[in-house]
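Hi R.,

Here are the chain sequences for the assembly we discussed:
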Amino acid sequence: MLDQNISRRNFLQGTAATAASLIVGIDLVTDKAFASETLVMSLPNPWLRIDSDSITFVLDKTEMGQGINTALAMIVAEELDVDLEQLTIENAIADRIYTTHNDLGAQMTGGSSSVRNSWQPLKKIAATARQMLIQAAAKEWNVDPAECRTASGMIYHDKTAKKGPYGTFAGAARKLPVPAPQFKDPATYRYVAKATKRVDGHAKVTGQTKYGIDTVIPGMLSATIVRCPVFGGNVKSLHDKQAKASPGVKHIINTGTSVAVLADTYWQARQAAKLLTITWYDGELAGLSSDKIRQEFIELAKKDGKVTREDGDVKNKDKLAVKTIDAVYETPYLAHATMEPQNCVARVTSDSCEVWAPTQTPGVCMEVVRGITGLAASKIKIHTTAIGGGFGRRLVADYVAEAVTLAKEVNVPVRVLWSREEDMRHDFYRPISYNVMSGGIDQTGNPLFWKHRVIGPAILAQFLPHAIGAMIPPWMPPSVSKLLGKFTGFTFHGLKVDDTSTEGAKDIPYKVPNILVDYHYADPGVPVGFWRSVGHSHQAFMVESFIDELANLAGKDPYIYRRELLADQPRNLGVLDRVAKEINWSSPAPKGIFRGIAQHACFGSFCAEAVEASVSESGDIKVHRVVAAIDCGPVVNPDGVRAQLESAIIFGLSAALKGEITIENGQVKQSNFHDYAVLRINETPKIETHIIESTEPVTGVGEPGLPPVAPALANALFAATGKRLRKLPLSLNNL
Amino acid sequence: MISFTINGESKSSDVDPETPLLWVIRDHIGLQGTKFGCGMALCGACTVHMNGDPIRSCSVPLSAVSGQKITTIEGLGKNGLTEVQKAWLEHGVPQCGYCQSGQIMSATALLAKNPNPSDDDIDTAMSGNICRCGTYPRIRAAIHTAAKNMKHP
Ligand code: FES
Ligand code: FES
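And here is the predicted structure of the full complex:
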């Protein structure tokens, strides 16, 4: 346990180099942080830096398209009382300091958690800083601080006509005791709750944003890595004579399970890699196929699983029910396919390591790098670059481990850049899921029982016990995995192994007297990971389709049926009613167009979507319109919320209509966008978004818009054709 | 030695003529606004203009651009933002932004040929550009806005 004052002093001393700057750090946020030993090794890099000529907001979340840079900067600008344009936004390096207001337990961005975690702490940091600046100015001017006001980064004392920019008082403010913050009256907000343009828009329309792939370090080599196509295989023999002689090639490294070609440029490395002759030991998964996985799941489904939700007693209820229905629902493995393929640049010397990574998790990168290099955290610098899409893929630091390992080996900076094919074939996929459901209704048509058995792998089972071992390539020595394994407790404490497999299934909100949800853990060995909205992304499809099946069994309108069963769930009901109203559910759809509806809550937010779709004579599906409503508590940037809803709907439609990773001979069959198609502009429906006014606690929006869209579409297709599609991707051509 | 112009400047390159233009632009000339997404002309992230027409630079060898005029995202709006870029900002199009150089190059080429594109025209011209962040509705709206503003600036 550290003395808090000493810690704070150390912290500020550490930053004395930036003289005259005011740093407001975590001691304002939570005492917990200062009680932690690890803070001692932290660099002085908190959230806000005020220098004589600049105001810097250090962003500890990863901006990957979700607009968190804008939302958090808005909060800071608001309470600091500066113009948004006055803030210089800098990406935080990896530092344990940034775990303090992150309930994910590590410096990472995911789980739609950033605004939820950061709003209050940043508000407090910014308001406190403003207060200290005012006090410093008042002291210098010898006036009453209560008579001072601020605007756009200036302090004014109107009576004496004195004024000055924040920077002038930063040095003096540093020496003042930390006051209690005075918050703005929300009625006077300039930014928060107002649709605000993104802070990075200009850089992104002019091609100036620097992504991971744009990192250039003098003298760096480009690496292409040929991995065993079969998961878990390794190198049997390697002939690299021709490749070695190829132009620009500097090193060829056999890592045991892969072969890395390092050349002056990416293209040279890629050309040389084609000249390698490698034979592989395919390992245990050589015979694995999607068919075999399915057969195994079908067998497992016959036995009882581990119960994850039990209400009432489902036993014999099928005999009491007036009508029953049984169904099997299936969803495939899915790749993330971020637009920017995985990449990382690393420089390793005997006593330092620097990494530039497009990562969602600098905190985990730090542990990975420590494990590989054996260096102390103070000798390691992890820079988070701009990111060309995350969606959960970049919560895994495998590509960081690759770059660091190679850079350490060859003693020059190395950039690892994956091709699209490598990216698609060596992802950490959304888990496959096989679901057996049965339900029955009573005389009134209300559900009497609901049984849902989930079979599939568990992300955390791969992620937790072998932990970071699962986040680094299999060719890492086991000692490294073991060493890193001990950090997982801190990374994901509090989550149970199967939580992500049945989330969305075990928390169905409908009033059903007898519910049984159980789960079979079955991991075929294909790497799995977090994929935008995680378990909810598939379980909402099962649950929201099956409730539609029960409505149909009861002969009731699927919206009204849901409504009645959600009578005790005001927020689910709120979003459901809103989309029904906005799509005009009670009047008939335009001719030839059919409607479906679904709602789902996840990550604390509530979202409903209604879809209008049509089916051609040949069975082609066209989505015309999606109407969405979200309740995510108070909103920082309404335009950001709308953009995330649009984004999640389109991402979800890609999965609903197209996405499927299949396994054959232990390897992924798909390789690029021709055989792993994603939604394109010509397939994109009209999207309308609605935000529910809410005073509930603030929650996130990156993921909750995704889960309802697949079932809403499947329900519309049922309305159109009378055919119940229980498998993703949805198709009417191969029934 | 292969010579061409890029954003109005003459360049000569002696790298392997089979090297895709994308990597010449990014790694040799050092203009990084043009992105790598698929390497197979499937995603449009690498879109640049050759004599005003959109091409997928990942799939065009350096040898094919000899004597041609290449324009990249850096070569647009030399005197401030173009109407397309301004419309992109007005509609808040970019999310991660990684696909947006390619989107903007495709949209710019479309509007140069067709000052008044219909939704179908937009679909045809833009369906080669993938956006995993799903900015398509805003891209569509921004192209209409840009078309309008180019006529009545
Ligand atoms: S990188 Fe050229 S089209 Fe995808
Ligand atoms: S903005 Fe991210 S891929 Fe288009």
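Chain A has three domains: 30-204, 212-283+342-417, 291-334+430-458+497-734. Residues 291-334+430-458+497-734 of chain A form a domain with the Aldehyde Oxidoreductase; domain 4 fold (CATH 3.30.365.10).

Let me know if anything looks off.

Best,
T.
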